[in-house]
Amino acid sequence: MEYFTTELLTLLFAALRSATPVLAVVLGEAMTQRSGVINLGVEGQMLLGAMTGFAVASVTGDPWLGVMAACFAGIALSMVHAILVLGCGANQIASGVAVLVLGSGLSAYYGTPFVGDKIDTLGNLNHTFVSDIPLLGQFLGPITPTVLLTLLAIPVISIFLFRTRTGLRWRSTGESQDITRNLGHNPMHYQLAAIAFGGLMSGFAGAALAVDYTANWVEGMTAGRGLVAVGLVIVARWNPWYALPAALLFGASEALNLKLQSWGVNISPYLLATLPYMIPLSVLMLSYRGLKASGGGMPAGLRVVFQNAR
Amino acid sequence: MKKVIRTLLATSILAISVQAAAETKVGFIYVGPKSDYGYNYAQEQGRLYLEEHMDDVETVYFENIPENADVQRVMERMVRSGVEVVFPTSYGYLDHALKVAEKYPDVHFAHSGGLKTSDNLMTYFAEIDQAMYLAGVAAGLTTGTNQLGFIAAHPIPQVLRNINAFTRGAQSVNPEVTTSVIWTSSWSDPTREAEAAEALISGGADVLTGHVDSPINYVQVAERRGVYSVGYHADASQFAPKGWLVGAIWNWGPMMVNIVNSAKDGSWKSEHLRGDLLTEAAKLSDFGSAVSEEDQQTVLDRREAIMNEELQVWAGPVFGQDGKVIVKEGDTMTLEETEKMDFLVQGVQGRLK
Asked: Across the interface, do B217 and A214 touch by the CB < 8 Å criterion?
């Protein structure tokens, strides 16, 4: 029984670790989409954040400076999307893809000299009061600051979005720009802030990967997690609270894939490798039954994006 | 002249040609970034060695070229720009290289790791599984839990050879040892590799090794969790000052010089050129402080035995996972057989397909 509990808790915390970078992106992208803008470039912003964070941590020797630099890099690249979409009225899908390619190209080009560098990590909760908690201590100990910060972001974002006046206007912009405009506000301001916030979160997610989780920079290291996060925004129904279970779903399937192999379970590794994509997809399909009419919580403003893309 | 070609693709493709008083142009194609601190990094070190040690050679390289028809176009472009010796360095380039080689009979091709040749296409590789066997010996002597962990990318013969050689090396000094394999289904996915390392450690493994592009990820996790690690491709000892045992690493330079020379002086042979511990194309890295003097000597004695052919990594009996005899006592696997390996040996936990 104790073995079972231990393994289950190990799996849960492994899921949380794997889910954290994705969760950060889901939160950021959900906020962006709440203002009626979709940004597929988050993957590129993540990569640029990961590279910048790693490079700054390597040069300055301070991982926290690296995290901050990563956030700024994410914001800076997201501004390309903002200029194209808000400034030039470009197609959002095409602009997002352009940002994605730009981010992965820039990070590959400027990241090369830093490959194989050794950086200090952000540390973890080991040797704090947490490690004294019976049973849970050994699992909470390895938790790193980016995990905690990302979890903390959930209530902060949802209070902002659902309990403040600015949050209300943010949401109304996503439903209909005309409403915001009629209230005497410029919807573009909210959309600009929303894109920047998405940039910040994806840059942070990149730092969580490169500075905190692996302490390593490798070209293309996000391996599609940013795009997975864009998909998970739909599973989370644009709600910061649902973002946690949605990201955990991905994290848990990822952890389960590896855990089942380490247990020696007799299932094909090819089949197991599809878990992180199959499980969220299945949940999406199941949860959408009966939700078709309401669009599953999609901001009405986003429809315009897809109609224009057609 | 330095020209940088950036494509619109997600991956950046870089071509740099360095001007010199060049007579022979040599081209390299890498499947990943040359800075991966792993397989491609090792091949790139070979290219740099070539530049440094041969005066009349000019090199060109392309990174991030996928293993599909794209690589044929890259090779054609190289050939048309005057490249006389092409090194398609990835396993999956072989059939494409054969096609291009047929079209340009005057150009020499040296493919890394393949098992087919044509008139102007040879293959080169090194029996790094010898080094992995020795690393296994070090692991078998060091482990306290008798559980080793192996983080593997894809079940191709080269990877299986390393898993099996590592396990057989460990078993030769410690019959209780088992190796758990986790497949990451990717040559490079740092996050998944780190998480796989965590899973192996929490499952009881206390020595980790792997066959993915870069050893840095699992070596760092092992160090953080206080277990030992064995490197692959490149020396990652600086990432594990406490837990580093040893690593199996490449040294392509001298071999590439020989290949280019043979193309220039006409002694080129259409063959499977294989380096080993003796020719130093595959090497054992320096030992970490975690390996005792006595254990180091044991490993070095085995190395001596492999180099003077007293010890064969693939000498029978070799048992499969289910205990069936694959190689009988007295038999030894041939080069072709080891390079087509499609099984895991007894003591390995993990599924192939």
From this structure: yes
